[in-house]
Amino acid sequence: xxxxxxxxxxxxxxxxxxxxxxxxxxxxxxxxxxxxxxxxxxxxxxxxxxxxxxxxxxxxxxxxxxxxxxxxxxxxxxxxxxxxxxxxxxxxxxxxxxx
Length: 99
What we know:
Layout: H1 2-24, H2 30-42, E1 68-69, E2 76-80, E3 83-88, E4 93-97
């Protein structure tokens, strides 16, 4: 009986962790993606250098990096090392890297 309870508890913990990871995933709709792409073409920014910062989804940007608003989208953008990145302003984490 004790083994069954331990297995059940472990399964619940695993499901909770998987749910937490899935909750952090940001989904950008095709419409939002189009808005972002069109806006950043019309509003180019100077590229900033961030040595040692990996430009990948999930990387948090330092507070020193100024994020710029995209109308009709809750996310912000910045150009780092000549690559546009979309950032969640509440966490400052990169959610998409554009080429």
